[in-house]
Amino acid sequence: MIAEYPRMDGIALAEAVAQGEVTPDALLDAALQQVARWNPHLNAVVLIREEVARAQIRAGLAQGPLWGVPTLLKDLGAEARDLPAHCGSRALMNTTWPADSEILIRMKAAGLVPFGRTTAPEGGIGVTTEAAVHGGPTRNPWDLTRSPGGSSGGAAAAVAAGIVPVAHGSDGGGSLRIPAAACGIFALKPTRARMPDGPFAGEAWAGMATEGFVSRSVRDTAAALDACAGADPGAPYWAPPLGAGFRAAIARPPRRLRIALCDTTYTGAPIDPALAEATRAAGRLLADLGHHVAPARPTADFDAMLRAWTDIVACGTAQWVRTSPAPDRIEPLAASAVAHAARLSGADYLDALDQVHAFGRQMAAFFTDWDILLSTTLAEPPALLGRFDHSCADYLHYRHGPGMCFDFSPYCAAFNASGQPAASVPLYQGADGLPIGIHLGARFGADEELIALCAELEAALPWADRRPPLPA
């Protein structure tokens, strides 16, 4: 069982615990062994608190769908009383909280056993995970010269390497889906307000950011989302109610859907030819499964949305820096974002918020004729380390410049701005062996239909046996 640990998903491990074939302590031992094997190469797992996990096991675990499964929390969000965080920044090292966040309470109620945190970039504002506070870059297990993406890059690298089968993450502009695509695993960003943010926040980045998970199997994400979804007390707004839930949704294929295929960027610009072909291959697969697939792309104002996203995220960065105990220790990119925010007025911020809301209505109009928008998750293969690190002192160039973040990832932020659910599915690999993620976006509130489609694709073209080799 322990030898098989890196190849098993969380549901299978929990079933083994329930049947008495393995103990939660033994699974934690296996996870720590994987950390010892992989982390010297990856720098993905930090702030390990084995004693906290052992104490949770001794106190008695909830016998939920992920009973006894070891997991990791991102170094942003998932505030925990017994698991301090650096929040990706030297300005916030060893931050502690007086209580557990609601999402962590629900994760533990599902039986999950968190034993540490995964690396994240400062403020979560980049598409890579190269934070000074973590002593160096986090590396992609498929190619150690490349980034695992960001900002949940440490979580994705840890899951891809088999350290844990499912890990906490978050997504404000693609931060679950970008790393999932780069590392060859699965991620679904839920509908806005589907996941709890409390009690330490009401929303993040004007509601564009959400908590979530990365995993190797669709059913692990379904179980984690079922356990954690739903507004927490005092939430400023709620998502539309779920039906039977995520696990029930994947138990059967979805209805036959109208799928818009976009093998360019959403504005029609060309992307890497191999990724464009992967998009078309996914379209052919979906057509073979009986779905209606045709070329189409939204006509929404993407440039205005991206400018608004940039302003809102700059203001969010300025907010946490202002309240940090050591604001002079932030990296150049965050300092530039703070400087940009200082040039914005309150009216400018509300203008940006209005622009994001207008964009959401434009995207909603597109989904009156289509059920799913299909593209690749990234416009090119996983980035080489250093390309997007936070030494850049020009925040606007970093996000909007030629060859920079929005050129590399032109799809994901649209669904943060619109609030609609979206997923990255690891259907393909390039000729170089690097993973290629396929992006699927759905209408607001249609999370269950989206995950059912992801499960149908997983069954049609399984990816579970694709594993990165352990480096020499």
Q: Any chance you could write out the topology, listing elements then pairs?
A:
Elements: H1 10-18, H2 24-42, E1 45-46, H3 50-59, E2 70-74, H4 102-109, E3 113-118, E4 130-131, E5 136-137, H5 153-161, E6 166-171, H6 177-183, E7 186-189, E8 210-215, H7 218-228, H8 246-249, E9 258-261, H9 273-288, E10 292-295, H10 302-323, H11 332-342, H12 346-366, E11 372-376, H13 395-400, H14 405-408, H15 412-418, E12 422-429, E13 435-442, H16 447-460
Keywords: Hydrolase
InterPro entries: Amidase, Amidase_CS, Amidase_dom, AS_sf
Pfam families: Amidase (PF01425)
CATH topology: Amidase signature (AS) enzymes
User: Beta-strand percentage?
Assistant: 5-15%
The sequence of SSEs as H and E is HHEHEHEEEHEHEEHHEHEHHHEHHHEEH
The average pLDDT is 98
Helix fraction bin: 25-40%
GO molecular function: hydrolase activity
InterPro entries: Amidase (IPR000120), Amidase_CS (IPR020556), Amidase_dom (IPR023631), AS_sf (IPR036928)
Pfam family, one: Amidase
Protein name: Amidase/6-aminohexanoate-cyclic-dimer hydrolase
